UniProtKB/TrEMBL annotation:
The keyword Ion transport applies. It is found in: Cell membrane. Its main location: membrane. The keyword DNA repair does not apply. PROSITE patterns: NA_SOLUT_SYMP_3. Keywords: Cell membrane, Ion transport, Membrane, Sodium, Sodium transport, Transmembrane, Transmembrane helix, Transport. Belongs to the sodium:solute symporter (SSF) (TC 2.A.21) family. This is Sodium-coupled permease. InterPro entries: Na/Glc_symporter_sf (IPR038377), Na/solute_symporter (IPR001734), Sodium:Solute_Symporter_SSF (IPR051163). CDD domains: SLC5sbd_u1. The chain crosses the membrane at residues 6-22, 42-62, 74-93, 133-151, 157-177, 186-207, 227-248, 269-293, 305-326, 367-385, 391-413, 425-443, 455-476.
Length: 503
């Protein structure tokens, strides 16, 4: 990296801190900190929802799979998310918003105490918070590996640098800072993504490289599903991503809650769905062509995007690409930290510490900022002590994808009227059974070296067990409740004042 590249990166960090300082003036209480007070424009909510699904993981782990295996990564990742979010625009996005507007909910798990009971809420809060801190640690490692590849900065220093800047603007600015960072990321990623795409097109002599490269690549690179990514894996991941990106990944539920109305949240989801179907193609085509430009990297494919950037981009643009990597990770981590803070301060602490229930508004806001600081610090500590080789893909697929289903199924299906009679017995059993299945299979594969336990099996089986337990116990042992019925029925329409504005 040259001087101009470093100037671009330094300028990006200054802007991020500036966003945090500006956003701080818009934060008057925890409703502003966690849900932007329901005042976020639908288009910003939609862009933020889309960009919150990215991190440097895409340019390390997923880019590596695109380099080694070709088309399949778009099919099992981007396509599943795009279709899932499109479905969720009608099923879940408006409901999340109406929870905030009608029930003063500030955390995605807050409604579970009424929908099921407090033990169910607490199990999912503790399990999800533990999962997220490891997930974020993987994202720190991913961005640090990219910084090391581009600039030779040691991984530990990279984690510390990006982590501290993220901590500053997250603690100051809350969800407003997250969303504005997402929008900045959208601009940076657009510039950097098109720069790489057109540089590759120029290398091959024109835009027709998009269809000509496949004849020069191994035949399996054009297969929709190949390698460990089977039809079973695809089907399981489609269900997982549908649940995850419509609120099972709690920070994405916040984007819908922050919109002005359920109708606006639906528009946000549809915008995000279209972006998921189209934009990843621009990012992946250079990686599909990469084996023809920087061959021989199969053993070190996690550095393939770095090699492409160095080979294809001019001075200054490399810095912009690197700033984009920072932006991806910092935006997602800030978003995750904000929602986990909401869960801790709204759902966990009031149950274990009586003082949290009687805090003043100013004290609640201060607690939220302290919790954000502590959560990011813990994730950085895990990242700094982890064995970085293979850590990113292992966490993203074998841990996050495999355990998201058991945590998300009661949360997400509990919002739908078809499951109104499914009660806490089914929800608790579903979550515990799914997580226990994952622990058994993961232990068999990783520690007992049972290689008949495939990646597809680890991802799909916990989800299937959890779903079956939820449905079978829920319908065999219905637990109807007038309070639950009233909650679910209230999510069908916007509040009367919002309906009047729309009319």
């Amino acid at each position: 990296m040259g001087t101009l590249d470093w100037i671009v990166v330094a300028g990006y960090f200054v802007v991020m801190v500036g966003i945090g300082l500006w956003s701080r003036g818009r934060i008057n209480n925890i409703a502003d900190f966690f849900t932007a007070g329901g005042k976020m424009p639908w288009w910003l909510s939609g862009i933020s929802h889309h960009m919150s699904g990215y991190s440097a993981v895409m340019f390390v782990a997923f880019a590596a799979e695109a380099y080694r295996l070709g088309l399949t990564v778009y099919i099992w990742w981007s396509l599943t998310i795009g279709l899932g979010v499109g479905i969720g625009a009608f099923l879940w996005a408006p409901a999340w918003n109406r929870l905030r507007a009608k029930h003063d909910v500030k955390s995605p798990l807050e409604y579970l105490a009424i929908r099921y009971n407090v033990p169910t809420q607490q199990l999912m809060a503790w399990a999800g918070a533990g999962l997220k801190v490891v997930d974020i640690a993987a994202k720190w490692v991913a961005v640090a590996l990219l910084l090391q590849g581009f600039a030779g900065v040691p991984v530990g220093w990279g984690i510390a640098l990006v982590g501290v800047v993220t901590m500053v603007y997250s603690v100051l600015g809350g969800l407003w800072a997250d969303a504005l960072t997402d929008f900045g990321q959208f601009i940076i990623q657009g510039l950097a993504g098109f720069a790489m795409f057109f540089a590759v097109a120029a290398h091959f002599g024109g835009i027709d490289f998009m269809w000509n490269i496949w004849d020069q690549l191994p035949a399996s690179h054009s297969d929709p599903l190949t390698g460990p990514y089977t039809l079973t894996f695809f089907m399981a991941l489609f269900l997982i991503k549908t649940l995850e990106y419509n609120g099972g990944m709690w920070n994405l539920a916040q984007r819908y809650m922050a919109a002005p109305s359920g109708f606006a949240a639906k528009r946000s989801a549809l915008l995000s769905a279209v972006l998921w179907l189209v934009w990843p193609l621009v990012l992946f085509f250079p990686m599909w062509a990469a084996p023809l430009i920087v061959p021989g990297m199969d053993a070190n494919a996690e550095q393939a995007y770095v090699a492409m950037g160095k080979a294809m981009l001019p001075a200054g643009m490399v810095g912009l690409v690197l700033a984009g990597f920072f932006s991806h990770t910092m935006a997602m981590v800030s978003s995750d930290a904000n929602v986990i803070t909401a869960v801790i301060t709204r759902d966990i602490l009031p149950r274990i510490w009586k003082g949290a229930r009687t805090m003043s508004a100013d004290a609640q806001l201060k607690l939220a900022r302290i919790t954000t600081f502590a959560f990011i610090g813990l994730s950085m500590t895990i990242a700094l002590t982890a064995d970085t080789k293979g850590f990113v893909l292992k966490v993203v697929i074998a841990l996050v994808a495999a355990t998201m289903g058991p945590i998300a199924i009661p949360l997400m299906l509990g919002l739908l009227p078809w499951f109104r009679k499914v009660g806490p017995t089914a929800a608790l059993t579903s979550t515990i059974g799914g997580l226990a299945t994952w622990v058994f299979l993961y232990t068999e594969q990783q520690f007992l070296k049972d290689f008949t336990v495939s990646q597809a099996l680890i991802v799909s089986t916990p989800l299937l067990v959890s779903l079956v337990l939820y449905l079978v116990i829920g319908f065999a042992k219905p637990e109807p409740s007038a309070e639950r019925d009233a909650l679910i029925d209230s999510l069908k329409t916007d509040a009367p004042d919002v309906e009047a504005v729309k009319a």
